[in-house]
Amino acid sequence: MTDSLSLFAADILSGRIQIIDLTQTLSPDFPTIVLPPEMGQCAPFRQEEISRYDSRGPAWYWNNFTCGEHTGTHFDAPCHWVSGRDLPNNAVDTIDVANFIAPAIVLDCSAETAADDDFLLTVEFMQAWEARYGRIPSGCWVLMRTDWSKRDPVAYANLRTDGAHNPGPTPEAVKWLVEERDIKGFGTETIGTDAGQAAHFTPPYPAHFYMHGKGRYGLQCLTKLDLLPPTGTLIVSAPLKIRNGSGSPLRVLALVSGAHTKP
Amino acid sequence: MTPRLQKPRHKSPVERTQQLPLLPSGRSRTAQGLTAAAARGEFALQVCRQCHTVQYPPRDVCSDCPSIDLVWQLVDDRGTLIAATDIAISNEVYFRERAPWRTGIVTMDCGPAVLAHLHRECRPECRVKLTLKLDRLGQGVMVALPIEDTVNMADDPLLREHSCDPKFRRMLITDGDSPVAQALAAKALQAGAELVLVGVANNWRPSAAREALGTMEGVELVPLDVTDYRSVEDLADQIGARVDILVNTAEYVRPGGSSHGRDMQRIRESMDVNYFGLARLAQCFGPAMRGRAADRANSACAWVNLLSVYALANLAPFGTFSESKAAAYSLSHALRGEMQSHGIRVINIFPGPIDDEWHQTLPAPKVAPSAVASAIIKALQDGVEDVYVGDIARDLFARWRDDPKALEREGAM
Lengths: 263, 413
Description:
The structure holds two protein chains of two kinds. In chain A, β8 (about 160) and β9 (about 165) form a beta hairpin. The two termini of chain A are about 30 Å apart. A nine-stranded mixed sheet of chain A has the order 1-15-13-5-7-11-12-4-14. Chain A is built from six helices and 15 strands. Chain A is an alpha/beta fold. In chain A, α5 packs parallel to α6. By secondary structure, chain B is α/β, with parallel strands linked by helices. Chain B folds into two domains: about 30-160, no CATH class; about 170-410, Rossmann fold, CATH 3.40.50. Helices cover about 30% and strands about 20% of the residues of chain B. Chain B has helices spanning about 30-40, 95, 155-160, 180-190, 210-215, 230-240, 265-275, 275-290, 320-340, 370-380, 390-400, 405-410, and strands spanning about 45-50, 55, 70-75, 80-85, 100-110, 115-120, 125-135, 140-145, 170-175, 195-200, 220-225, 245-250, 300-305, 345-350, 385-390. In chain B, α4 (about 180-190) runs parallel beside α10 (about 370-380) and α7 (about 265-275) runs parallel beside α9. The termini of chain B are far apart. At the A-B interface, β2, α4 and β8 of A face α6 and α7 of B.
């Protein structure tokens, strides 16, 4: 009982490793990304009963559900974006499963985003973070904490006459994370990995463009990032194995040492 | 003068809800012509093509010559009431409960004498106007009205019984974001509706229409998304027993046809709102409304579908939209069968292109949303079943009646 996996299992059993659910509940009320109405739209989550201990099936309860690959808390595969279309193993069914368990660091932007809905994560912000917590390791998830998940649905979508207003990274910040820090992917609490106004950036939607262009992944609509330490989290995030899927709703679990967690 | 209808008192929640008894039914196919005319709000009788005799009651052979060439056509609706009686006791439960029931014989200016239900202001030897109305089970019947409109005329119990007047009733408009919703809510309140409930979907999305509705006195916003069964079910569970008139304004309008490439999303979403949306509403609100069809003077009474005249004939530039409306049109017939035997009228509104953002590129004439709203209120007050709104809709309906195949080839333009 001394190999690392046995120790790990023992720590899970004893609670020395805590498991935190970073997933939003899939429900019809949860906002989906809004595109101009003449474009194709991501389907919201819908659930219809097959039977519920009734004439349709006397002893059993079950539902059919429908949603898009990018509904609720979901994983973005590289083929989601045009920049990643020609990469090998770029869909949820072909990505090496080793990528689905990876360490994560958390950038706490909650003070900045409380003051500014359009806060942009910059290289300078992350260099300041590194000065305090050390270099962002390669192969890790970078999770941007904004406390956006604590908002009500109206403030969460935050749609105004000129579109959505929510925080996200600058193009330079994403490029730096991919090229200088070689991260696994970028995760957010907001409806997408990009800022609400990122259509106006160069390139548009840089988190999608650079991340997926280099075969990296995205996680969005995460919650409870405030319970994670800046470093030392392990993320389990395996999307559904959808043939040539561009993404998938999924359960995202964070494993943290008990000593690090806040109440 | 008709005594003014008083606002019905609130019913005790432990009081039994009256049910609608059956009405005499069983009509020959020929006699259904009366129902067809009543459904459109027209006054039509059979006329002999040979001798021009106006026929009543409907028949297969002319009452005056041996011809069988009888055609339904609009005829003069005026006449003189020669005898009237108040029926105090009837073998029919429906009439017994509503006694005294006033009936009389009217000799029509165009020829026949008819037995008609009488508005209480019709006096013997006075001139009257005959109308064809749908009774509570949806069958065409003769109703005589005063020749000129009188004060509070619509409050007469007979007209109240044969219409779906919004006065003192509660209306649910299923989609507040419909261009028709705002005008409809305002006109319903003007017509005396007690309360207008307006459904709002995706509350997290801003909507100017919703904000305007939210500030209207007498309007209450309720969460409702016809694409989400649970949402429809939840609302029906909460307020289904408060809905006297349901108006389904939820519709999904997009240009495009069925063989336009790689666009199943648009096709599926069209059906999801325009057809499945109606099916979800029928599943959840149908039973609750059926149970309240005889619930005093402000009973549940009507279910209104905002269809499209292109449900009858496909408009190619809006092909998928037309298809989904045709599916809803067919559903409305089944729904009518299920609802009318319980006393709830299903009213179909067939507008031409509505002047909204999705018909932006279509040339005039287009129907103003407020005209659609007015047509809905009038249909309820008149108690008709089918309304074609706007010049395009009326023209298209006339061509459809004349020859559906020719209209198909004309492309419904």
